[in-house]
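This part of the workshop introduces the protein records we will be handling. A record pairs a protein's sequence with a compact description of its fold. Backbone structure tokens are a discrete shorthand for how the chain folds in space. The question running through the whole workshop is how a given chain folds. The record below serves as our worked example for the rest of this section.
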Amino acid sequence: MARANRHFLSGYLWHITHRCHKKEFLLKLVKDRQRLLYWLFEAKKRYGLCILNYIITSNHIHLLVSDKKCAHDCIPKSIQLIAGRTGQEYNQRKKRKGAFWEDRYHATAVQNNKHLIQCINYIDMNMVRAGVVGHPDQWKQSGYNEIQNPRKRYGLINHNYLMKLLEFNDYDALKDTHNQWVNDALKQTHKKDLKWTQSIAVGDKLFIEKTKKLLGDKANGRQTVNSEAGYELKETQKPYGNTVNKKNEFENKFYWDLGFG
């Protein structure tokens, strides 16, 4: 399985998921989730990572990011920093040895249209879907709370770019609409949407064809799948097992896995 930066396409929006080793609840303590948020802020400061939404759960993370106005490798460098430092700090404090994360993360390219809205909503609803909370605002380490109540210090989300992508000129309108998306979702059946964990790209047919063309030979073996929600470019290979290259334990790689929420 190739490294993520070999599949990197500049100018795309990416939904990234990364889970703890063997699905362990290594982020169950608030202080550990807060430390991960600290390193996410450091990635934003050091590499210019453009963050559009996120949630840190007890055993995995979701990030919606862009390479807007940053170096071509800012996303893989950011994930390496976040994963590496979070795992190192946890292991040192617990006097623990071994991997903190699964050796690969999963990344899905997201088209900037209704699919971006679906992705934002999917991230917001993660802990509701898991039955942990009744509303996204009850899980504090989430982008939902930051969109609804922007931080004056140590903010993570690039609100201006999010407004631009969603075509809002007024921030109050963004907040109200964003909140309405959640209210609408709360009235529906909560279930996992596997396109965010099985697909290389999600969008309309033209977007998928463009992505596949840009990937070139790297798109060989990928399937274009049509569903009611749109099109997906799916990985057909089976996911790798738990074999980890110890030298590159926190390298950034795609991980095609069905276990993410």
Observations:
- The chain has one domain: 4-248.
- The CA atoms of residues 1 and 47 lie 26 Å apart.
- The two ends are 22 Å apart (CA to CA).
